[in-house]
Specification:
5-stranded parallel sheet; 4-stranded parallel sheet; globular
């Protein structure tokens, strides 16, 4: 199995002062929580402005990826260069939105790269040093990446594979949203026909750490059967928590799954077919 994309909080201390730390805590109060306490030198990544771009949700969903060149310039501004160790964390076990940041870094070929298993709570439990205020990093030139476009799939691609038995489409949202019993964010409830449901939070233990590789592989085996990871597409509401599925898959050795970043928020606004139950 490939090396894990995770790092235990207990192993983070030697990297402080050497790695670029990215604090990807999201949700109400995230800016204030960061300003009050974060790992020394950690730069806050706002999910709305740093990990996404404004746009029409019918074309790219509620959290479309930023222009690739903009992301590469941001990485340079954070002090990230090829070979710079980067460690990401959030306050939700990776789902909001460390996994999204991890995926975006990985997409442009960056390494070494890791997500702190258990996030901010694990950081505090490990007794790691913290600081307040804002950090800006050591700006450098634009990150040099060889890719010319984000390696995602679009709605037309998903339409072509969603009921193909040699592919798997996985929805990371909570069961009540997948089944169409509740939809707090988008105008239509339900899911993409043919999709399986695997709630991203079900991949976490009660202490917020990711489940063991064996447990995760068993979970995915129930969905994949003999379908290889390279023929898996993950989505959610807006392409954020779907990245947690990709992170967990890689953590258990299932490498190569793809992201439909527009997700349900794009799909349901394009008058495409939907399903409930």
């Amino acid at each position: 199995m490939a090396s894990s994309p995770l790092i235990a909080a207990a192993k983070v201390l030697p990297s402080i002062g050497r790695a670029v730390f990215l604090d990807a805590r999201a949700g109400p109060g995230a800016d204030r929580a960061y300003a009050e306490a974060h790992l020394p030198g950690a730069i806050h990544l706002d999910v709305e402005s740093a990990l996404a771009a404004p746009g029409d949700p019918s074309v790219g969903g509620r959290h479309p990826l930023p222009v690739l060149e903009t992301w590469l310039e941001q990485l340079g501004a954070y002090g990230v260069r090829p070979g710079t160790p980067v460690i990401v964390y959030d306050g939700a076990g990776g789902g909001m939105a460390a996994a999204r940041a991890w995926w975006m870094l990985r997409a442009v070929g960056h390494e070494p790269l890791a997500v702190i298993d258990g996030g901010w709570q694990a950081v505090r439990d490990a007794g790691l040093p913290i600081e307040s205020g804002n950090a800006t990093g050591s700006p450098s030139e634009k990150y040099p990446s060889a890719i010319e476009r984000w390696p995602t799939v679009d709605a037309d691609w998903v339409e072509g594979v969603r009921e193909d038995p040699t592919w798997r489409l996985i929805d990371a949202r909570a069961p009540e949203r997948y089944e169409g019993r509740s939809e707090p964010l988008d105008p239509v409830a339900g899911h993409i026909p043919g999709a399986h449901n695997l709630y991203w939070q079900s991949q976490l233990r009660s202490d917020g750490l990711l489940r063991s590789p064996a447990e995760l592989r068993e979970c995915y085996a129930k969905i994949l059967d003999d379908v290889p990871a390279e023929r898996v597409v993950c989505y959610c509401g807006s392409g954020v928590t779907a990245c947690h599925l990709l992170l967990a898959m890689e953590a258990c050795g299932l490498v190569g799954a793809q992201l439909y970043v527009g997700s349900w928020s794009e799909w349901c606004r394009q008058a495409r077919p939907g399903a409930r139950g």
